[in-house]
Amino acid sequence: MFTFNYQEGASLLSAWGMWFVVLAMLFLFNEFSRRSKMGAFISFIILPAVLSLLWFTVLKDKTYTDWFHLAKVYSAIAGCIGFWLIRHYEKRDKVTGEIIWRLRDKKLALAFPPLILAINILEAVIRDIQIGRLGLNKELFEGQIMMSGSWNYMNALAGILNIITITGWFGIVIRKETEKDKSRDMLWPDMMWFWIVAYDLWNFAYTYNCLPGHSWYCGLALLLAPTICAFTVGKGAWLQHRAHTLAIWCMFAQTFPNFQDQGKYMVMSTYNPRIYFAVSFIALIANIAVLVYMLYKVRSTKRNPYLGELYVDLPGHKKVKELGEPSILDVKATY
Q1: What digits encode the pLDDT tens for the residues 247-274?
Q2: Which of 95, 150, 156, 193 has its CA 20 to 30 A from that of 128?
Q3: Domain layout of the chain by residue ranges
């Protein structure tokens, strides 16, 4: 599946060692940006502003300037800023200090997370279709050696199904502050483990299809970091973790493109058509399975997955919901 750059001094130890370093740094950066309001402000407002100046001036001849890479980095940053506002933006009474208005209690605000997620997935779907239509056969395209095939279209379909199976965003809540955790994470109880796994499989297939020289890091490490966090210290906040880690990785890759493209830490695809087909096929089957299960739940529960929450009877949903503070939408639903 992968081949290391032995000509530049790479070894199995150096490749795997750097992979674990990337995974650990993404995890730790996410902890910094999620646990601190100011940490997120620095990470996703101040840092991108400074780096943008560098990308379009002193680094303009080195960094990625094609539409796809720019769209990816700025959509990820936009997601992080939007999630930060949902988590923290509120108004208090000047006299009593009581909260009188919270952004997270507005349905329009809660439509932002699924929208930015769907846009992010759709960008990759369009890219898969673009690469498929080019008919490339181990040819250089926008800095990557690409190989087109039926796998591009299979994975594009998997991505579309992944968008369709996004459910229950009006059930998003903010994590209650405790002595151990004051992160105020954006929890999405209806985003269950099986959807996350299907997303990871689809996204890895996308990176393998369209970023074959980068998928060792942005496919494996970048996908595992938020998933590990979502099932350990940051339960229920996978989308937030995904946005944070994606944004910092994109900013790093924009600033230091040679890390993946040159030297001993570069890891390439083996360009085996059978592997390409298998990876995208598995992703498609997984997303079909999630769609079938979603339709089964819709039929058996009579719930609307887009106007309410669908998986409220599952233990995983209940555990995440209990971590959150009640929203005005939840309070109204009880009357």
Answers
A1: 999 999 999 988 888 888 889 999 999 9
A2: 193
A3: 2-333
